[in-house]
Specification:
This protein has two domains: about 1-35 and about 60-85, no CATH class; about 90-270, no CATH class. It contains three helices and 17 strands. With about 270 residues, it is an alpha+beta fold. GO terms for molecular function: serine-type endopeptidase activity; signal peptidase activity. Its main location: membrane.
């Protein structure tokens, strides 16, 4: 079962915050009043006098737990929702740019501030640009996080034919770099962005061929491992409300629990 961590984080933050606030405004005063009444009653029964302030009774366990965890949860929620969120790369669809086991950081405000869980944009900051590596929610289920490169912007006409990319009728330059069986490494120019792609040797280019027009408020996404990527060529465009953020750095590589984490790949993402 997949756990919706952002939803869990929001629920825990609000639950601990409400418990802490309710205790601060109402419950603590009731505990103190009860303690004062109890102290006065004891003094009367023993014929003595109540002295000074009644000792504050111990907080209930749930209140103590909420008071301790709420600030930490609130800070994590703000950081993950509006500043930076970490992700791990689970597949090779973005090779050679991103490898399986890369831990990346995603800028959450580059494309505008959005409400956690709902994804509704509340403040416009910028828009995705061609060549960006972007994390988004898979449009078919609205939950699974995908990462691909932005190829088509609203209004663009995209064509992919015989392993060649065309944007608005112009052939995108793609230069041979090396033959690395079973793939060929090429360098592609996407406007101001240069990045590497893999093309599988000996595999016909018919898969994923076609022509698409990107509607307003949508983006056409493709993986850098062109012959091994499930992307917009197969399931369509990404609407703006599914955008999560811009991937900008690799901070660790840890392929599996049977291997050791490595920092050899730490750096920016082209």
């Amino acid at each position: 079962m997949d756990i919706d961590f952002p939803l869990v984080l929001v629920v825990l933050t609000f639950a601990t915050g409400l418990i802490w606030l309710a205790d601060k405004l109402f419950l603590r005063e009731r505990r103190l009043a009860s303690a004062r009444a109890s102290g006065s009653s004891s003094a009367t029964e023993t014929g003595g006098a109540a002295t000074g302030e009644a000792e504050e009774p111990k907080e209930p366990y749930l209140v103590d737990l909420s008071r301790s965890f709420f600030p930490v949860l609130a800070i994590v929620l703000v950081l993950r929702s509006f500043l930076v969120e970490p992700f791990q790369i689970p597949s090779g669809s973005m090779l050679p740019t991103l490898e399986v086991g890369d831990f990346i950081l995603v800028n959450k405000y580059a494309y505008g501030l959005r409400l956690p869980v709902a994804g509704t944009k509340i403040l416009k900051v910028g828009d995705p640009e061609r060549g960006d590596v972007m994390v988004f929610r898979y449009p078919k289920d609205g939950e699974t996080n995908y990462i691909k490169r932005v190829i088509g912007l609203p209004g663009d006409r995209i064509r992919y034919e015989d392993k060649q990319l065309f944007i608005n009728g112009e052939e995108i330059d793609s230069r041979f770099v090396a033959r690395l069986p079973p793939v060929e490494l090429r360098r592609e120019d996407l406007g101001e962005v240069e990045h590497d792609i893999f093309l599988t040797l000996g595999r016909p280019g018919a898969s994923g061929e076609g022509e698409w027009v990107v509607p307003e408020g949508h983006y056409f996404m493709m993986g850098d491992n062109r012959d091994n990527s499930n992307d917009s060529r197969y399931w369509g465009m990404v609407p703006d409300d599914m955008v999560v953020g811009k991937a900008f750095a690799i901070w660790m590589h840890w392929k599996s629990l049977t291997s050791l984490p490595s920092f050899d790949r730490v750096g920016g993402i082209e």
